[in-house]
Amino acid sequence: MRERSRIQQLAGRVGWLDRHRRVLAIACAAVIAPLLIARLSDALGSDWPRMHATLLGMVIGVMTWVVVEVMLVWLTALWDTECARLMRDRGLPRAVVRRK
Asked: What is the pLDDT of residue 60?
C-alpha cells in the first residue's frame, strides 16, 4: 500500500514537471538575468559600455536557463527511474537459470 502511494506521488511529480519544466526554467532565468545585469553593470564600472554589460548579462541569463533546464531534466529522470523501479518490483525473487 505504501509503495502504491509512492508510485502515484512520483508519477504525479514527473507528469507535473514534464508539463511545466520549460516555463519554470525560463521564469528562473527571467528573474535571475536582470539581477545579473544590474550587478554586472556596477561591477564592471564605467570602463565597460552599458550595452556590453547588458549583452553579457543576457548571455549569462541564457546560460542560467540551460543550467536550470538540465537540473530539472535530471530531477525528472531521477523520479521517473525510481517510479519505474517501484512499478517493476513486485516482491518476487530474481529468476536464476541453473543448467545441469
From this structure: 86
Largest CA distance in the chain: 83
Per-residue cell: 4: 502504491
Cβ-proximal residues to 53 (8 Å cutoff; 6+ apart), any chain: 37, 40, 41, 44
| Surface-to-core class of residue 42, CB atoms within 10 Å of its CB (0-12 exposed, 13-18 middle, 19+ buried) | exposed
Q: What is the pTM of this model?
A: 0.73
What are the tens digits of pLDDT across the range 46-88? 777 877 877 887 888 899 899 999 999 999 999 999 988 888 8
Whether 79 contacts 11, CB under 8 Å: no
Alpha-carbon separation of residue 96 from 39, 67, 91, 92, 93 (angstroms): 62, 43, 15, 12, 9
